[in-house]
Every structure is written in structure tokens, then in C-alpha cells.
Amino acid sequence: MNALRYDGHDLRLEDIPRPEPGPGEVLVQVQAAGICRTDIEIVTGGHGDYVAGRARVPITLGHEWSGRVEAVGEGVEHLKPGMLVTGETGIGCGQCELCRRGHYNLCPQVTETGIINRDGAMAEYHLHPAGFTYDIAGLPFDQAAVLEPATCGVYACRQGRVTPADRVLITGGGSIGQLAAQAARAFGAWQVVVTSHSRTKLELAEKLGADAALQSDDSLLQAARRVTQGEMFDVAIECSGSGSALGDCVQLVKPRGRIVLIGAAHRWPEAPPPGRIVGAELQIIGVRGSPHVWPETIELVRKGKIKTGPVISHRLPLAQWRQAFDLVQSNDPTVLKALLLP
Predict the structure, then answer these.
(1) Could you give all domains of the chain from N- to C-terminal order, each with its CATH number?
(2) Coil, strand or helix at 179
(3) What are phi and psi of 226, to 5 degrees?
(4) Cα(324)–Cα(313) distance, rounded to whole angstroms?
(5) Is 0.90 surpassed by the pTM of this model?
(6) Most buried in the list 94, 102, 199, 264, measured by CB within 10 Å?
(7) What is the DSSP letter of 131?
(8) Half-sphere exposure of 64 (CA within 13 A, CB side)
(9) 270-306: buried (b, 16+ CB within 10 Å) or exposed (e) per residue?
């Protein structure tokens, strides 16, 4: 089969043996795989686990995916050939204390599909643990491939304890920001505001239900005061990975506000002001992955409360992977989510 492999230096489309499912595994014929900024970090040498030597190579990339079940291994009963499925990224050992407590995304031996020590789905076929694989019948395969970033938005709202009493700020208008804003609305937040440098992304956020969309510039503080009538925000979900955006969150949440960080901390070169954090008793909450929210997210997408289709900007065949990666790296505001179609 063809698979997009990273060897620690280069990314190549290679011909490798097709895997066979063992006990508790499912073999999936991949329909679509999304390109994420995490993939860019890996191939450009900036991902922390690769820098620290914790991630083995070679590896097939791809942690956002959908596909049809080709075959199942021994003991798999809830999945059948032909079913449209997707699967979780972070998979723990199932035996350590963190896994036993349900925090398998934080397992010391965690593998992350297409990221850390587990092959991903930028390939014609993908092997996945059946217990972390979900039926997504009724969803278009391309929209289903964007479920993974949608789960990140839902998990961020869970960790941030978003309620109908909350004003929620989303910093960053990329695919995760757009999906997190919809998740906040699905959680009942009575005001959702998105910030971005891109007018295109702000317009999309408003189309997808944001109450306001604000430019991330010197006028942001004044604009935030205006749209919140001076109340500011109960929860801020930082989706951009920008140091300035993290600083914005610290300034724009009210006392005892919750700031949820999606993504890796090494992306933020600027430290937030500690005086404000301490003085206002702010809570800064990191999130890793999206455990325990996949069935919930799938239902929200099925019901149309989260729309994944509008964040898909490009669809290219796997053979055109170079063009697809160049698009994602271009910082073109019209590029949100690019899919590879094996």
C-alpha cells in the first residue's frame, strides 16, 4: 500500500506492506485524512516529542481520518466490514495508574496515532485498536475526517466547564477555533466571541454562529469591552498557539476566569503576566487530546450542532501530498483544513 512516511529527515510516499488486524484490532480502508499543524511541526523538526527523542521513526503520519472497515481481528464484535469509522488519537497502556483513573491521554507510555509511536492514516489502509474506533454511520466521509479536531473543541469546553451562564472567548480562527466556538455554543454558552487576524476566518466564525468576531489587533481590548458591555469573559479557549493570544486571554477574562489551552506549550514564546493571573485568581487549564468525548462529539455533528464541513477548504489525492502540505504551511487565510484522499 502507499503510505506517507516520515523518517526523521524527510517525508516520502512509500510502498509498504499492508497490515493485517490482530486480536482487538480493525483494518480500515482510509477515505480521508486531514493535515494538522501538528503534522507540520513534525516534518519541520519543531515537535517537542521528536526534539526530545521520545518519538520513534519512521512513522506514517495522519491522526485525523475516516475510513471503511476492511477486516477485523479476533474478539472484535461491535465493528463489521463496510462500516464507516474513525478513531481516537491518544491511546494509553490501560494498566498504569493514570489509565486506571481514566486519564489514558496522559499515560507515560501513551501512543498517539500518526504522531507518537503509532502509525497514522495518511495511507491507503490504517490499523487501529477496535476499542478506540467509532461507528460514524450517516456522516459524509470527508466531514467525518474532521471529527478529531472537533473532539478537541468539545474536550476543551468540558475542561473549561462551559455552561449557559458563560461568555466564551475563542482566540484563533483556524479549524480548531471554528469547531471550538461551535462546541461552546452547543454547550449553551450565551455569548461566543472569536478573535483572529484574518477577516476571512472572522466571517466564517460569524456564519457558523459566533455572536461577534473581533480582529486580533491593538483595538481588541476596547472591542471586547464593547461586545461584553464591560463584563469580559468567563472562559477563554486559546486555539492559535500564539503568545500574544495567550496574553489576550489573561487580560480579557474576568476575575476567577478559566483559560483553556489547546496545543503544545512550546508554541508560546511569550509568558503571560503572572501578576494578573495571581491577582485575579485565574485558572489556566491545559488540555491534551480529547479523551471520553468522542461519542458525544459524533452525536453533536450528526445533529448539526457542530458543522465540520465548512472548515474543509481543500481536498487533494494522496499523491499530491506535497501540494497539500505546502498549502497548510502557506499561512493563506483561505486554507483551513486540507484533506488527503487515498
Answers:
(1) 2-146+308-341 (3.90.180.10), 150-287 (3.40.50.720)
(2) helix
(3) -65, -50
(4) 11
(5) yes
(6) 264
(7) G
(8) 28
(9) eebeeeeeeeeebebeebbbbbebbeebbebbeeeeb
Nearest alpha-carbon partner for 149 in 290, 305, 20: 290
Report residue 169: phi and psi, to 5°: -105, 130
Query: Is 257 in contact with 280 (CB distance < 8 Å)?
Result: yes
Q: What length is written for the chain?
A: 342
Q: How far is CA 4 from CA 18, 122, 297, in A?
A: 13, 6, 28
Q: What string of pLDDT tens digits covers the 342 residues of the chain?
A: 999 999 999 999 999 999 999 999 999 999 999 999 999 999 998 888 998 899 999 999 999 999 999 999 999 999 999 999 999 999 999 999 999 999 999 999 999 999 999 999 999 999 999 999 999 999 999 999 999 999 999 999 999 999 999 999 999 999 999 999 999 999 999 999 999 999 999 999 999 999 999 999 989 999 999 999 999 999 999 999 887 888 899 999 999 999 999 965 455 556 677 889 999 999 999 999 999 999 999 999 999 999 999 999 999 999 999 999 999 999 899 999 999 999
